[in-house]
Design a protein that fits this description.
The complex is a heterodimer.
Chain A (H helix, E strand, L loop, with lengths): L8 H23 L16 H27 L4 H4 L8 H17 L5 H16 L6 H26 L6
Helix pairs in contact in A: 1-2, 4-5, 5-6
Chain B lengths: L1 H14 L2 H19 L5 H11 L5 H26 L8 H12 L3 H34 L4 H18 L4 H15 L2 E2 L6 E2 L5 H4 L4 H17 L19 H6 L1 H16 L5 H15 L11 H25 L5 H12 L8 H4 L1 H24 L1 H4 L7 H20 L2 H19 L4 H24 L5 H5 L1 H24 L3
Antiparallel strand pairs in B: 1-2
Helix pairs in contact in B: 1-17, 2-4, 2-17, 3-4, 3-10, 3-15, 3-19, 4-5, 4-6, 4-14, 4-15, 4-17, 5-6, 5-14, 6-12, 6-14, 6-17, 7-8, 7-21, 7-23, 8-21, 10-19, 10-20, 10-21, 12-13, 12-14, 13-14, 19-20
Classes of the chains: A mainly alpha, B mainly alpha.
Chain lengths: ~170, ~500
């Protein structure tokens, strides 16, 4: 099913993960209240559909793992087919995730919205500006971007769209 | 026929106020700009705009969303032609000939072709939206729980099959979406599933923050992976579409419009498949096949007509069956529900005018993209020069504020973050997002109808396969899955 032929070991581990996840869902579904005292049949029990989905996830995960294993076996002589793919996460992504988590998970709701937003946008702009840019230019951009975004978003949401800000 | 025309006229008159026209033009512009920026898709634009328009009256909010949708699909062609980077996945097919034309110094003409193809594609799709929806709506009144169960499953399976490189991973993503839809109180006994005592989870995962995360935050992370190369846009010739290009390829336009609308009607497929299908069909029928990929006007016209015709097409199953035809249509459907509009088989009974309202909204959007295509192209392409490190944090702020705006809960911001990270990693391992979204949207419909059908038949599975429509949809599902398994097995034989 992966016509591109780029299946790597990650499919095997992914398959194992999905089988485990499906099993957990199935167990959780079986543990749910069955409401038999209220006349529930097997089809109306709350765990019926999640349980079925859990089984389907397990089956699909098993197929994924078996397919990955078969491909790994048949192409073990070819280094290219089992070569690890490019890493999903790199330094840029890592910093982006860190900044977004600090802003949305930490600053929002704890400091005034305008301040948190200005800090986030300013820091982001500073960190990801082209390295060849002078410090003065970078600083100007970061202050302008942070300040303007914070002001415009606050005004647009609160005054035009009448939305309460966190 | 005439009743439909009169209703359509009423809708146009209803929307022809300065305020609404301003909204329509502004939101089409927002759509074009967001669609043109690589990394910001139509689904993301719609999810963000849904959060922004939450407090507006429902007709104005939906008008803004429809115009954003049409604008974003059209806007993707700008970066496809000028930078060889599709602004949205729907414009990937336009890169082939659009960029080739641009390299020959014909970028302006290519953008003119994209404008005429997009406008005509939307108009063809609108014609079928207005004509088919009442017919399909009346047919849908005969659908029962069995049919709706199969249709919901069909949407997930087809989206999984066609929207990624690997159907198996697409199906897994779709099933995971169904599971996410099951979080919170179930419909029959209000029993809390998978909430583990978290009060905010008892009401389930709100669709819009989840979509903003999966399509907004995840896309921003993907865009940040590489440092943006300096953007070089060569000067281009006139962007005014040539009548000759339209009259010469009228058959291609008509065919692509029909294919695009047809693909739109199929649940869960979407604009990118519509563009590629139209492109492939045009190439097969063309007398100038050798030009395809080297700057074929016909190829670009086919791709642009197909993807824009898909937009009204995707609205047909939304309105008649409450099953979205594409990922952006899924967001639009969620927005309709938030605004108290109930799409589904009863729409032609309860609010038939609404169908023509949507057609009128499409018309306003088409006028918007025509104006921007003719007048503002040179100014709009300057947006492509804005550096990534300015755009990404601003869009993320909108993702966070928009998620909060839905219900005023910080919990929804965390949902957005969680879905963004989940979407980013799943995407990185080759799991497409469209089936996941379809799964989340259709999970409730699937569960309710499966349980209802089994209750009605007392556990007997026969009606699932013996009722005529049920049998056809079931055959299509099993046929799709079987065909994929067969084709893979065959390809592995020595």
């Amino acid at each position: 099913m992966d016509e591109g032929g780029k299946t790597t070991r990650s499919d095997i581990w992914g398959g194992v993960g999905w089988v485990t996840f499906g099993s957990v869902i199935l167990v959780e579904a079986l543990r749910m209240d069955r409401f038999t005292s209220m006349g529930a049949t097997v089809y109306t029990m709350p765990g019926f559909v999640p349980g079925m989905i859990g089984v389907v996830v397990m089956m699909l995960g098993l197929v994924l793992a078996l397919r990955g294993w078969r491909r790994l076996k048949t192409s073990s002589s070819s280094l290219e087919s089992v070569a690890p793919a490019a890493p999903i996460i790199n330094g840029r992504i890592g910093f982006t995730i860190l900044l977004t988590l600090v802003y949305a998970g930490g600053l929002i709701g704890r400091v005034p919205f305008w301040l948190g937003t200005a800090l986030f946008v300013g820091t982001f702009t500073w960190l990801f500006a082209p390295p060849e840019q002078s410090v003065q230019r970078r600083l100007t951009h970061c202050v302008l971007a942070g300040g303007l975004t914070s002001a415009v978003v606050s005004i647009v949401f609160q005054e035009i769209f009448l939305v309460r800000l966190p | 026929m005439f009743e439909g025309l009169i209703s359509f006229w009423h809708s146009i008159v209803h929307f022809s106020t300065p305020e609404v026209i301003f909204y329509a033009l502004l939101s089409s512009l927002v759509g074009v700009v967001m669609g043109a920026l690589p990394g910001l898709t139509a689904t993301m634009s719609l999810a963000l705009m849904t959060t922004l328009t939450i407090k507006l009256p429902h007709d104005q909010a939906l008008l803004i969303l429809v115009c954003t949708y049409v604008g974003a699909i059209y806007g993707g062609s700008r970066s496809a032609i000028l930078l060889n980077i599709p602004g949205t996945p729907a414009s990937a097919a336009s890169c082939l000939d659009g960029y080739a034309l641009a390299r020959q110094g014909l970028a302006g003409r290519a953008m003119g072709i994209a404008t005429s193809g997009s406008v005509l594609g939307t108009l063809i799709g609108m014609f079928f939206l207005a004509g088919f929806t009442p017919v399909l709506g009346n047919m849908a009144l005969k659908f029962g729980a069995y049919e709706f169960f199969w249709l919901a499953l069909f949407g997930v399976i087809i989206a999984g099959t066609l929207t990624g490189d690997d159907p198996l991973k697409g199906w897994i993503a779709g099933v995971a979406g169904l599971l996410i839809a099951g979080i919170g109180q179930e419909p029959q006994y209000a029993y809390e599933r998978f909430s583990y005592g978290v009060r905010d989870l008892a009401g389930g995962i709100q669709l819009v923050p989840a979509l903003v995360g999966a399509f907004g935050f995840a896309e921003l992370l993907t865009a940040m992976k590489e440092r943006q190369a300096p953007v070089k846009i060569s000067p281009f010739d006139t962007v005014i579409p040539r009548l000759k290009d339209v009259t010469r390829y009228w058959r291609t336009i008509l065919r692509s419009g029909l294919i695009g609308t047809g693909v739109g009607i199929v649940p869960g497929v979407g604009e990118d498949v519509a563009a590629w299908s139209s492109y492939a069909a045009a190439k097969r029928a063309s007398k100038e096949k050798e030009l395809y990929g080297k700057g074929s006007i016909e190829g670009l016209m086919a791709a642009e007509t197909g993807d824009n015709a898909c937009v009204p097409g995707a609205m047909i199953p939304v309105l008649t069956l409450a099953i979205p035809g594409s990922a952006p249509a899924a967001v639009l459907m969620a927005a309709m529900i938030i605004h108290g509009v109930k799409p589904g088989p009863l729409i032609m009974v309860e609010s038939p005018q609404f169908v023509y309202d949507i057609v009128a909204m499409m018309l306003f959007a088409t006028i918007g993209i025509l104006i921007y295509g003719l007048v503002l192209t040179k100014a709009l392409v300057q947006v492509l020069r804005v550096p990534q490190h300015f755009i990404v944090p601003i869009i993320f702020v909108l993702c966070a504020v928009g998620s909060f705006a839905i219900s005023g809960r910080l919990f929804d911001v965390y949902v957005m973050l969680a879905f963004g990270l989940l979407g980013f990693f799943l995407r990185g391992y080759g799991y497409p997002m469209a089936p996941l979204v379809l799964g989340v949207v259709l999970g409730d419909l699937l569960e309710k109808n499966l349980r209802r059908a089994l209750l009605l038949s007392d556990g007997d599975l026969t009606p699932f396969f013996t009722r005529p429509i049920s049998a056809v949809v079931a055959a299509m599902i099993f046929g799709t899955v079987g065909w994929k398994i067969w084709s893979v097995t065959r390809s592995h034989k020595p």
